[in-house]
Amino acid sequence: MSGRSRRIKQSQIALAKALAPLVPNAAREAQLLLMHHLGCDELYLLAHAEDVVPNEAKLMEMLRRRMENEPLEYITNRVDFYGEEFYIDKGALIPRPETELLVDEVLRYVEKERSMQFVEVGVGSGIISIMLAKHLPNARFIATDISKAALEVAAKNIQKHSLQERIELRHTSLLDGVEEDIDYLVSNPPYIEEGVFLESNLSYEPQNALFGGEVGDEIIKELINLTLSRKIKFFSCEMGYDQKDKIQSYLINKNYKSLEFYKDYSGFDRGFTLQC
Asked: Are 154 and 89 in contact (CB under 8 A)?
């Protein structure tokens, strides 16, 4: 794309052409970049197709970032999850559609009107606690994370969804300093084995939100231990597709009520609920 000013329609076509060799849905991504740049919706793009694009240099910078495989969500600071829009930035992991299933899993075990104390470990962008809070009007939430950058992203989303009175953020590791009784523990922790090769776009995401240790399931096991020792009634957790057998083996001879696994959209084992 040249540096001369273009009209919106021309710019959209040129963006899509530049992105076509790199992304599967170049036309849609071009549209999203333009909408973000102009602060508008799709109807505006159609109605103002012949308007000149202002500050095209800034748009070109966004295109450069995307062509270097930076995730579109970080460029636009926008991500959709469970039918809602959220703020996202590099301090937090980009929510995946599979994590919507973790929200569904929790909701299977909880009556909507019940008053409960939830704790989420590794709150990240805040999407899990926020969606649970929207579905469970009488529940309260404490959400922890070791990353101050992630907590800043979560705080913006909590404010965006007007849930400051029901979701409390704490900068801590796991349940350190959380002395309250806990009815339900939920987490999408890091669970990838250290040293595993990841796609280049994942290099932009916080690595401490991806890698769970030398084996990968270390943090999950720590959370299981905390669930058992503190007699937390429910623990729902996302996991790696190959970790079911390890978790079942780890719980042999331990005292708990039930352990149920659930699958993701591709049919892989993706998480579990431990009931004590």
From this structure: no
Range of the domain at 20: 8-68
Is residue 49 a contact partner of residue 8, using CB atoms and an 8 Å limit? yes
Segment 111-155, tens digit of pLDDT: 888 899 999 999 999 999 999 999 999 999 999 999 999 999 999
**C-alpha 35: how far from chain center:** 22
In this structure, is residue 245 part of a structural domain?
yes
Our separate counts of H helices and E strands in the chain read: 10, 11
What lies within 8 Å, CB to CB, of 2 at 6+ separation is none
Strands 234-238 and 269-275: what pairing?
Answer: antiparallel
- Examine the domain organization and report whether 144 and 260 are in the same domain: yes
Q: Are 52 and 165 part of one and the same domain?
A: no
Count of the separate structural domains present in the chain: 2
In a domain, 269, yes or no: yes
Structure-token pair, residue 275: 């009931």
Report how far residue 50's alpha carbon sits from residue 9's, in angstroms, rounded to the nearest whole number.
6
pLDDT at 210 over 90: no
172 lies in the same domain as 52: no
- Are both 105 and 26 inside the same structural domain? no
Q: How confident is the prediction for the chain on average, in pLDDT?
A: 91
pLDDT tens digits for range 150-199: 999 999 999 999 999 999 999 999 999 999 999 999 999 986 666 565 56
Q: How far is CA 198 from CA 195, 201, 236, in A?
A: 9, 8, 26
Q: Is residue 85 part of a domain?
A: no
Q: What is the pTM of this model?
A: 0.90
118 shares a domain with 64: no
